[in-house]
Amino acid sequence: MTSTEAHDSASSTAVGAHLRSAAERDAAPQFVLPLVVRIERADPPARTDALETAARAVLVLLSDARANGDGEWAAAVRDWQDARIRKVVRRARGAEWRRAEALPGITVTGDRAEVRVHPPVPLDGWPKDLARLQVSGTELDDPEPPSAPPAGNPVLWLNPGLAMSAGKTMAQAGHGAQLAWWELSAPERAAWRDAGFPLSVRTAPADAWDGLTRSGLPVVHDAGFTEIAPGPTVVAEGGERFCPLPGPRRP
């Protein structure tokens, strides 16, 4: 698959770069990557913080020793990447969050956001304490407009023409981070990981979006099953120090 292949987002999904034909992927057992965002009523995270933390959570899972080689999660990750790569974001608070933390997974923190990524599970085989969590209710806001991305860091540019819920946007940001990861060599992956996966998620300027989608950079395409019509949602732009990707950087 190329990085511009369609991403079925009925459950916020993506398709792996190294995989089989679409028909073979559809026939394979289907898995989903659960992402749980902590949203306490009195202290919800800022939207951009949650988006960036979700993207980093996907990278942390992909780079974890348990997800590679003979690791305990490796078989599930391979099965997940051999089918339609689905990501579903659910919210938790209080006791729900504590139950999610008790299950196998990794909690990734941002400025204030907390996202727990769990190893892939069968599409129809979610653990009970994750299955009961709600997909809706992930609406988040930024108290102030996000600042310009730090110079030299990779950026996941969101389509400025789309209005998506925070949960769906978190999944799309995760797709963009995963596409970027697949483009990198082992040394480039290690350098990004060792730096803590610095990245930014920002809405692209309207006049730059078309150029970004044509730049040769990885592009996430949504299949339009939920919230939005089919089309591009995220462009992953590499940084000067970490996550170098082909294609020109924006001026």
Keywords for this entry:
251 residues, alpha/beta, six-stranded mixed beta sheet, 8 helices, 11 strands, 30% helix, disordered N terminus
Describe the protein in words.
This is Peptidyl-tRNA hydrolase. This protein is 30% helix and 20% strand. With 251 residues, it is of the alpha/beta class. Strands 2, 3, 4, 5, 6 and 7 form a 6-stranded mixed sheet that branches. The protein has a 5-stranded mixed sheet with strand order 1-10-11-8-9. A hairpin with an 8-residue loop joins β10 and β11. It is globular and about 45 Å long. The protein starts with 5 loop residues before the first strand and ends in a 14-residue tail after the last strand.
Task: Provide a short characterization of the protein structure.
The chain is an alpha/beta fold and 251 residues long. It is built from 8 helices and 11 strands. The chain starts with 5 loop residues before the first strand and ends in a 14-residue tail after the last strand.
Give the overall average pLDDT: 88
Q: Which spans of ≥5 residues are poorly predicted at pLDDT below 50? A: 1-19
The rounded distance between the terminal residues' Cα atoms is: 29 Å
Percent helix, as a range, is 25-40%
Major β-sheet annotation: 6 strands, mixed
Task: Produce the secondary structure layout.
Elements: E1 6-7, E2 13-15, H1 22-27, E3 31-38, H2 47-63, H3 74-81, E4 84-92, H4 94-102, E5 106-109, E6 114-117, E7 121-122, H5 128-131, E8 155-158, H6 166-183, H7 186-194, E9 200-203, H8 209-213, E10 219-222, E11 231-237
Parallel strand pairs: 1-10, 3-4, 8-9
Antiparallel strand pairs: 2-4, 3-6, 3-7, 5-6, 8-11, 10-11
Helix pairs in contact: 2-6
GO molecular function: hydrolase activity
Organism: Streptomyces ramulosus
Keywords: Hydrolase
